[in-house]
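Homework-ish question, so no full write-ups if that breaks the rules, but can someone show me the predicted structure for this set?
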Amino acid sequence: MPIVKVLTDGIGELNLCDIGVYRSRGGYEQWKHAVTAMRPADVVELVSKSGLRGRGGAGFPTGRKWSFLPNNGRPRYMVCNCDEAEPGTFKDRMLLEETPHQVLEGILIGSYAIGSRHAFMYIRGEFKRGYEIFMQAVAGARAAGFIGEKLFGTGYSLEVTVHRGAGAYICGEETALLNSLEGKRGEPRLKPPFPAIKGLYGEPTVVNNVETLATLPHLLKNGAEWFSSVGPPKSPGFKIVSVSGHVKRAGNFEVPLGTTLRELLELAGGPRDGRKIVAIQPGGGSSACLFEEHLDLAYDFETMAANGTMLGSGAVVFFDDTTDFVKAAHALVRFYAHESCGQCTPCREGGYWLEVTLERLLHGGGLDSDIEMLVKVAHQMTGINLCPLGDSIEPFLASVVKRFEPQFRAYVKPSVAVSA
Amino acid sequence: MNGTTGTRDFAPVLAQVKPEAERLIAQYPDSRSALLPILHAFQDVEGWVSPEAMTAAGAMLGLPVSVVESTASFYSLFFRRPVGKYVLQVCRNLSCQLNGAEKIMTHIRERLNIGHLETTHDGLFSYEEVECLAACDRAPCMQVNLDFVYDLTRENVDALLREIMAGTYETPPLRQTAKPAANWHVEQDWAQKSPGARGVSSPNDPGGMGDVSGLRMIERLADGPVVLSGRPTEERLIVEGAARLKHTGSANEH
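A: Not a homework solution, just the prediction itself:
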């Protein structure tokens, strides 16, 4: 089995929320090492060399993201995105609640790398317990002298503020998150300018995912080579994959990228007894479905993209042959319709109409033409919004309508259908 | 506004939240960033975000109350009307659905005799169907006053409801400073987000003109040529508006 223990090491066995336990395993040593023995540019170079790509969904190379910050002498901000809400994803919550110091050390190292003096941790409003745990972790680290003025006797000072959201999926989008952090409605901003140029309070800002940042202490400890030698060359390293749906043992599994979907399925205990997997959604609610013939594909950024879908946040949902894909599509479409911020007409209206249409189908009032309309509307609302939310409906909907069209047709009531 | 008590004394609440609010404001380079945390603080004390709380938050941050309300209304965890002592938020998203969430939701609805976004008569329970809670490995799941409850079955849901009713449930109740109504959404939220969608029963039959923007556009085009090319949007609107006022003759009235 391809399971590895890097970020997940010790989870479920030790109380890693205890700073003493975390430090006894080498915790915060990399933080000290970075500040006392490395220049920020060295950290950036190390991360660039490792090939680490963002673990939040977009998969953008982390080192490159950092390198976009202008040298303009303005304050810079590091923001950790813990607004995890992509359907099927539950890795960040685990890291937050089980190993908060690892996340915090990552935030500190990332802040140092980009020359930030003030870091923010944005935690999803629903994660009240995680927020309390993290507040305690920050207090512990502050008492131990890892946060504050003139750290380790150097001239470097760093402040960390923990901020709790209040329920809005869209705040996971980085510019919406920044607006929310500024005390505004969480509506995405027009880009460019990107946050690297004009982010929080209009200053250069980096927004990184929890898992991305939590990887940093390990990168510093083990070197870029250690990371880049694992997995395929363009998607190197390890990834926590959240596996759920119709499996026996759903859970988070840390594996090298390039592990096959079938291996992931086996890690999760395989399909339920007497059932077989017919579809896989490999990268969160926004990704297109793959099917049973794709089970032997390697799970990495490139292979997923080459097969018309994406790795996204690393949330794999397996569907077995009992699945009603009309209901599944309805659940996801309703989600995007509910979470649309309403700024862009195609997303606000398109999501709404698709939800209504699917509801009508489910309640036996659907028309034969509804099925084409679903695909058409989903396609029309794609690519013309400020942020990717409006583009997130089409991949799943179109892929399951294409594959399981008879299921959709079966919901059309013959007596209601209007003949031309 | 529904839910306000009008004459109640807000000073004790304010006195309780004020020191916390000042600490929160000091954390940020810009005080407005403290808005969400301050609203959380008020909700912790009162059990909901009352109009008085929004006014007070606005006063602390130098924001008009309209801005505070508009911001608060964006976030689903701020209750702008009183809610029950226990808010049950059941996940209705994909992984939970695949693992039987629908059965659980039906069960809770029947047991409590309330629906989505509603509160029981005794003010003990509020019920909401929410989106993915990031606990898909333990589906179906829900939050009770934001504490996670996993692997829901009809049996463990029944046990939980019994414990809450008996007052023995481990998660403490929310503060309840005002009696909740049958539902907790304010007027604005009852209307659909889409103006065009109001009162429309079928996507294929718009049922008249819910949305008049198309009509307006046709009207505007019929007003005659307005040269638009090459001008920035804002200017275009001004020119267009002026042309329109001129056309209707109302420009003279102003």
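Now go work out the reasoning yourself. Hint: The two ends of chain B are 34 Å apart (CA to CA).
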